[in-house]
Amino acid sequence: MAYFDHNATTPVAPDVLAALLPVLSESYGNASSIHQHGQRAKQLLETARRQLAARLGCSPKEIVFTSGGTESNNLALAGTHRHVITSSLEHPAVAQPLARLPNLTVLHPNSDGLITPEALRAALRPGTSLVSIMHANNELGCLQPIAELAAVAHETGAIFHSDGVQVPGRLPLNLSTLGVDLYSLSGHKMYAPKGIGALYVRQGVELHPQLFGGRHESGRRAGTENVPGIVALGAAAARPLADLTALRDRLEAGLLAAVPDSIVNCAASPRLPNTTNIRFAGLEGEALVIGLDLRGFSVSSGAACSSGAVEPSPALLAIGLTREQAKSCIRFSLGESNTINEVDELIVAVTASVNHLRKLSPTYV
Ligand SMILES: Cc1ncc(COP(=O)(O)O)c(C=O)c1O
After folding, report:
1. What are the extents of the domains in the chain?
2. In CATH, what number does 14-237 get?
3. Would residue 142 show up in a list of annotated catalytic residues for this protein?
4. How far apart are CA 108 and CA 320, in angstroms?
5. Helix (H), strand (E) at residue 331
6. For residue range 110-157, what is the model confidence (pLDDT) as tens digits?
7. Which strand ranges, in their side-by-side order, compose the sheet holding 275-280?
8. What is the pTM of this model?
9. CB of residue 165 inside a 6 A radius of ligand 1
10. I want to staple 313 with a disulfide (CB 3.0 to 4.6 A). Which of 109, 168, 252, 302 is the partner?
């Protein structure tokens, strides 16, 4: 089986696992305890905080550990807001908490999948207190011009949050120069385990805690810290990044050459180097996912959390695809263990599966 679904989740890297395991069996103290077991856990926690801060280009004080991307997003967006601006590309962990707000503006991307600084400026009002626009879309991979967008939001004093969950495992980052106020990330998209994440909170930015019951994380997130997960996240943050651009481009070029009527979504935009989202006219993406699974390849036809749902992906509709077009898209997301050989075999498998499905399709002529 070859795994091409790293935007859904990554495996835990062997060196991350090696850092994590002894914490479970040996350094199991509660980081709030004053005895040596507790202090050892506290040291590990603070080392991991420094590792993550170094990776993100921020101060360790600006990191709040959470249970993952969903919690980081919910924490970032909490509080009362007069007017909030977001985009129609967001993951449900941003879209759903914001949907409850009475005064929300949702910006739609252009056909390249981008929210322009001009569109944001036009939507700003004197009462806009928060702007939340994701850094990289999980399905399309398109990267928003975050530095420009944050600068525009700051023109009227709004706080700028970005869901960065898909980015830290794939691209170098410097949050200080990016200019964001709040930035969410998740361990299981960067070779650490599931159930650990972090929120970057720029110094001076007010946070509205959502969990109460202790002074953990400087009063910003109560609950005994997940020290093994945090150590793993720190170890993941300290790993060198693999550049998957050449492998992704090989896959993309190979598929476009072998499969007629295939189109790369958002091909003209800056994109994550590991992601390609391709529309294969005349078939159902879900059927292709199943066909490829039977041939030994794991891919996705939308966000993992909505797989199985009959509704087409909102992000694909947001870039202007029809419902039928949106349902015929497949996301291939590569990871550091993928090989040239696997990519070449995947091209052969996709070509065979698409040909098979198109023969059965009443709409493809
Ligand atoms: C862009 C984005 N935001 C948020 C999340 C949620 O993160 P987690 O699974 O850690 O809660 C995901 C996970 O799929 C994601 O891709």
Report:
1. 2-10+242-360, 14-237
2. 3.40.640.10
3. no
4. 9
5. strand 329-333
6. 989 999 999 999 999 999 999 999 999 999 999 999 999 999 999 999
7. 262-264, 275-280, 329-333
8. 0.97
9. yes
10. 302
